[in-house]
Each structure stands twice: as structure tokens, then as C-alpha cells.
Protein 1
Amino acid sequence: MGKLDGKVALISGSGRGIGRAVALKLAQEGARVVINDLDQEPAAEALAAVEAAGGEAVACNGNVTEPDFGERFVQTALDNFGGVDIIVNNAGYTWDNVVHKMNDDQFQAMLDVHLTAPFRIMRAAAEPIRIAAKKEAQEGRRVTRKVVNISSVAGLFGNAGQINYAAGKAGIIGMTRTMCKEWGRYNVTVNCVAFGLIETRLTQKMEAEQATIDIEGEEIKVGVNPSLMDALTQMVPLGRPGVPEDAAGAIYLFCCPESDYVSGQVLVCAGGLLM
């Protein structure tokens, strides 16, 4: 018996990295999972991994910044599993530059993926959650649902070259605390995890030829200078960068029953690093 048996979890950006680790973790605890990725291949691989581990999953692929994505994401959960119990707003990426070299599109892209997309997903889930909570109250049952939003130490303390990313990640903290107050009456906890240095494709060490990711035809450089990566690692009190499984564990803390009376909080998962 898993602690999340019978729960339905929606995890954006769960085809790889942190999101994939979260999907596997929640599925291992019994949750049925709706996986999402911008690309078909990683989503299919993550779905197969969940099923190979004995879990249930379906995919809802596409760009979370599309105006209709929130409705499509939530409806996938309703159509396949009959409800919504956990939402993890994880999808995102970085697109760095100093302020005088950053154009409007680059700035807005970070707000779109880190703020507007989570807003639309939660808005789409509001009515199904309200209806379910009302029915449960009439039956004398208390069912606690969970939302976990993803921030960063950049959103808490700022980071040079990331005015767009830091603004989005600071904004999701305000959104978290607002939704905690709005949805408490429906027995929904809304919390936030702020990550430090976690090893993913976005934080890989730069090689001779810098890696890029493709976002709707836009080639965006990713990676960290090796010397900077080494310096950052030395600053982490635990002595190492985190891995996706570390990140998934922090998110799981807010999804499990033991946190049913914790809401509106920001948990820093950074190995002790406080910038």
C-alpha cells in the first residue's frame, strides 16, 4: 500500500529531469500520473518507466504556455482517472542574459512558462476541485488535495543574468501564498519548493560546443561554465549538487499525508546553500 493510493497527480514538464523523477516517485507511492512534456519522445519514455515500475500513467504533451493547455491537462486527468488530487507545476527552463542585452520576448518567455502557465492550470482545476470538495463535505469526508509550485533560490535572492527567470520564480511564491488562502476552504494545500543547484540538462557543464534546447523553434543555450559549476558546488554545505531524485523527494514531502496541515510554505531544497 502506497501513501498516495487512489490519488491522481498532474506533473508538468515530467518527461525528463526533476519532473520525471517526481512522476516515478509519486507513482511508486500509488498515484496515477498525467505526464507532460514539450516533446513526444521523452514523455513516452517517462510513461514507459512509470508503467514498468507498476504504476499507471497517461501523457498530455505540448507547450504549457499554450492558452488552452491548462484545460487540456486537467481534462486528461478527469477523462482517464476521474479526478484531480495533486498538481505539480514543474515545467520551465532558463534563458539568461544581462538586463541591457535582454529583449522583451526573452523576458516575457520566462513569465509565460513560470507564472502564466501555472495560473492557467490551477484555474482549469478550480471547478473540478470545488465540485469534488463540496460533494465530500456533504458526505462528511475530508479529502486533502495538494498543489506544489516550483521556485528557485534565484526567486528568493536574485541571480545576476537572470532578471527574467528570477522575476518568474519570485512571482510563483506570491501565487502560492495567494492560492493557499483561496483554496484552503476546499482542503487544498498549496506549497512551493525552491531549488538550488540540481543536476539537469539546464545545469550541465558547458563543453567545447555549448548545448542548446529547442523551445518552439528557438534555440536556447543551456549549461554552466565548468569553473563556475565547481565554485558553486564548493559553496554547497552538503558538498555536492542535488540530483533529480533529491528534488523529487522535496516535492513529495508536500504531497504525502504527513503534510496535510502545511500550506503556504516555501521549502528550500539546496543542500544548505543560501545565496
Protein 2
Amino acid sequence: MNEGRSRAQGPAVSEAAGHVEVDVYQMRPLPYEDFLYIKSDFNNQRVVRQADPTAGRSAWKAIGSSSIAAALLIGLLLPHAYRLLAGYQISRLKLEHEQFSNVLRTLDSQEASLVKMERLYEVARTKGYAPPTRDQVQYSQPKDAVARLDKSPAGTPGENK
């Protein structure tokens, strides 16, 4: 009695007993099982897209506008990057200045200890030299002083009046 029924029609109902006969081995209906798909073989190898005369112009406009936008972005970011690099360079130069100042102070103290007259007398005694007389020692001008004559002849610009 149920052999002619399809799955889409649902379960069979017995008229005499009034109960529903359910086939436990019957599958539920699948989605789109009534959808019919027919595959046809089309050959689109010789189909060519129709040329668009405005496509080239719009592509060049897009390239130009993106190039201008990139140049503008680089132009806006370049000063900030330059300032950042300059800050790094300034901090590096400050560290170098501190290092060189420390080295200069060390060298100045070493020079001061080596140039003292007592040290020179001591070195001369260890080497067997005779100490210099007062006439043989010449003192140089300090580094910040300007060279000048003490007594200048009359009528010269360095004369003190």
C-alpha cells in the first residue's frame, strides 16, 4: 500500500485502524532535493570582453591620484622623521661631549702633574741633568692672553698713554 508513495508525500495513514504507519528506515527529505540541475557544456574560449574606451583613462587617473596622495603623505611625514633623527643625533652628540669632557679633564690633570717645575727637576735629577738656571727658563703666555709688547716705541698703536 505504501510502495507507490514518495518521500515528499509523508507517512501513510491506515484508514481502518486510524494510526500512522512510520517506516523507520525512510530518510528525511533533504533540502533542495526537488531542485533539478542540468549541466550544459558551454565553450567560452572564443568569447572576448568588449573594450571599454574609458578604462585606460580611469586607470591612469587612479595611478596619478594615488601617486599624488603618496607624495603628499611622504611630504607630511618627512619633517617629523627628520626631527626624530635629529633628536637621536643630538642625544648621541651630548653623550660624546660628556665623554670627551671627561677625557679632557683627565688629560688636563695629567698634564698639570707632568709640567710642574718640581716634577721637571725630579726627572732631570733621575736622568742626570743639571737643573736649569733662572735665565734658561722661559715662561709662555697663558692660553687666553693676547701677545703684546710691554714697552712699545713712541707713535705705535700699542702704546699706552
Protein 3
Amino acid sequence: MTITLNQQLLDLSTPRVMAIMNLTPDSFYDGGRLKSEEQLLAKVQQFIDEGASIIDLGGYSTRPGALDISVEEEISRVLPVVKLIRAHFKDIPLSVDTFRSQVARAALEQGVSMVNDVSGATADDQMLDLIADYQVPYVGMHMRGTPQTMNTLTEYEDIVVEIRHFFSTLAEATAKRNINDLIIDPGLGFAKTVSQNFFLLQHLDAFQLLELPILIGLSRKSMIYKTLHTTPENALNGTSALHMAALERGAHLLRVHDVKEAQECIELYTKLRTSAT
């Protein structure tokens, strides 16, 4: 399992960490915390020091019920940060977390090298053509509806089969466009109940049949803090526990708020997997 980032191969045979950098005021955990260029650059340096392989920049909150914003506002949140990071950090791969091809194009033109699309190319019919033009890795996530409506769309006959079919269709569409690096994300918390999230995580290995890298984003999510009757701020231990479960079931990328702890999970998992009897 490899993907090409910044004209270099990233080997996913050992799982990797994607660090979350929310540039929104209303994200469920860390929205609005980075208030200055100094804070932002310090956070990037921290992510790098702790072992992040990719930093994922998002200017549109996708928490349930989040407010919709214009393309222009999303670009105004993302683009200055891309330029700032690129002026100080030349090598760290950047991803843009957006379902809009206009935002993705603006970011790609400024040196972003990956697109993370929560809609799996269902929200913007220009997205896959853009990815084909730029030949960058593409994360396609499964979601129904929009962040504003997804909590009402949680009825499935067989959730694993239906999501796997969604990814098979997406893989066909990317193959037709000669897109080389497709990464799939089952979308925990997006049009899924807490019980469905745990069921998907339990059966994550079913998606290995697609022979595609798997990204998991469960960091501090409601499936953890609601189950433990706590808050996102107190959900780090639960996050680490479920990260290990995801790694054991075939996750190649962990999308996280807390890089150091996720990297430790990967190191322990790798040691456990490679230990001689």
C-alpha cells in the first residue's frame, strides 16, 4: 500500500497519522482555538515533531447540524493558512478537507497535495475530474445527505454491504479517470448512529476486499464520549482504545486531533504485529 504525495511515495504498510487542523469557529472539539499565525505555526511544528505524515486543513465544519457557509468564505479560511504553512514548512504534505471542487482547486494551486472529501464525490460532480487533472491522492468518505441532514438518514438494510458497494462504485469512477490513489473512509459519525459506528468499526476488515487504503476518523467523536458519558475534551483515552481496534482491523491512516498518542498506538500495534513467538 503506497500513495504518492509531493512526488514521493508514502508507504502505508506501516499505518500513518493524518493530523486535523480545523480552521472553523464551530468544529465540535477544537474550533476557533488557533487565533494567530504564531499559534498556527506552533501547532504545525508540534504535529511534525510528534510524527504526523499529513496535515488536513478544513474550513467547513461537518459536525452534525453545522451551519452552511459559502464557497468564498471557505476559501478565505483555508487559503491564507495554506500559504502561511507553505512559507514556513516546505515538505510536510498538506490535505484539504472539502467537498467543493472550487475550494480544492484553490488549495491545490497553492501547494496542497491531497483532497479529503466527506461526500465521496457526491456533492460536486466536478471533483473527480479535478483530482484527475492534478493527479493527487483522494480520500472518498461515505456520507448520506449533508452535515445539516445526515442525522435523519441512518436507515440501512446491510450497512457494511451498502457502504462497500458505494466504494466499489467510487473506485470504478476513479479508475475511469486514471486516478491512481484512492483512499476510502467509512465515515464514522456521518449518517450513522452510535451503534452503527461500532458495528462498522467491528467489521472494518470487510473493506479490505477492495484492496484500497483505509482511513479512519474517530478522534474524540460522539461514539466515544456518548458511550463513556463524558465530553470531547475527556475522550482521548477512549480514542486511543478505538484506534488500536481500527489498526487491528486494517486501518492504514488515522485522522486525529492528538498526533503523539495516535503515533504511540501505531508503534505499539506494529511491535505487537511483528513480535516473534
